[in-house]
Structure formats: structure tokens, C-alpha cells
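Page 42, continued from yesterday. The earlier attempt failed because a stray header line got pasted into the input along with the sequence. Redoing it now with the clean sequence only.
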Amino acid sequence: VFTVTRTGDLGAGLSVGYTVGGSAAAGADYAALPGWVTFAPGSATAAVAVTPRADNEAEGAEDVVLTLAAG
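This time it went through. C-alpha cells are written below.
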């Protein structure tokens, strides 16, 4: 789980886009992610859950890297 934090005015909800990289493959090693995270009004944090998938391949450790969009 990635926990994303925002600062400033928390009065309104906010959606923030992101890209996903790393050595793990979306759809094969983990369930594909939507590409945005939504903060509820009044909330300073939001979570992006990464759900692993068993692909029955002998592999080393893999990672998922989440990069927030600017703006």
C-alpha cells in the first residue's frame, strides 16, 4: 500500500494522477491500477493498494514504483 499525503486546503476532494513503473508487470504480477488516487474532502491522506497476483513463475524480488503527476 502506498500512502499519499497532501497539504494545504483540505476542504474539497482532490484527484491526483500517477504513473506506475518498476520491475513488476501490471496485470501479471499485480492487479492493474487506475492511474489516479482520490482524497476525500477533509482528508490529508489517501491510499493506493497494490494487490499481488500469483503468476507461478520462479522470479526474484520485483518492485512497483508509483510517481505522482505534477500539478
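Notes: The radius of gyration is 14 Å.
Reminder to self: strip header lines before submitting.
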